Amino acid sequence: MIVEKTYISNLLLIKPDVFRDLRGYFYESFGLQKYEKEGIDAVFVQDNVSRSVKGTLRGLHYQIGTSAQGKLCGVLLGRVLDIAVDIRFGSPTYGKYFSVELNDESHNQLWIPPGFAHGFSVLSETAIFSYKCTAPYDKANERAIIYNDATLNIDWKNDAPLVSQKDLLAKNFVQIDHDFIYKID
C-alpha cells in the first residue's frame, strides 16, 4: 500500500496493493493496523454504498458537531471524479478543493477527515461508490454546499449533471458557518 499526501493537509490518497491473475484480482480495502500506521487512526462506524448512473453528481455534503464524519472513499464499479473541499476556517487551503478519479481499475481510495465537504460526479455508465464513515448519518447535523458554487469553481467534468432537489437547495460557500477551525498538525 502506498499513501500519498495531497497538497491539502490531512487529505490522503491511498493506493492499495492489487494482486491480479487469470481469475481476477484481490486487494485489501481496509486493514486497521496498516491504516493506523499511515496516520489514519479513525474508528469507522458506518459503511455506505451508492449506485449511480452517468452524469449523477452527489454533494457537496458534510456533517457538523459530534456528527462530523471522516470518510474513506472508493469505487467498486465504474469511475467517478471525487471531490473534497477544505472547509476548515483558517486553513491555508480553506475553500480549495482536491479532485481525483477513483475507479475499479486502480482501486485507489481517498481519506477525507472531518472538516471537508465531499461530493462526486459519475464518469462511467454506472458507478458503485463505497465509503466508510467515522460517525453515523445525522440529519440534524447534515449540511451541504451547492455543487456549482462560483467561489469554489469546481470542474466536475460533467456538463449536464443529475442533481437531487435537496442538493440544488444547498448554500453557497460564502454562506456556510465556520463549523470547523483549522488546527496546525
Distance N to C terminus: 23 Å
- Rounded to the nearest angstrom, the radius of gyration is 16 Å
* Gross CATH architecture: Sandwich
- Strand content of the residues, in percent? 35-45%
Mean pLDDT: 96
String of helices and strands = EEEEHEEEEEEEEEEHE
- Give the C-level CATH assignment: Mainly Beta
Extended strand count: 15
Structural class determined from secondary elements: mainly beta
The CATH superfamily is identified as Jelly Rolls
Shape: globular
What order do the strands of the largest sheet run in, or round the barrel if closed?
1-2-11-7-13-5
Query: Uncertain segments of ≥5 residues (pLDDT<50)?
Result: none
The largest β sheet comes out as: 6 strands, antiparallel
Task: Please estimate the helix content.
Answer: under 10%
Number of domains: 1
Number of helices: 2
CATH topology name, in short, is Jelly Rolls
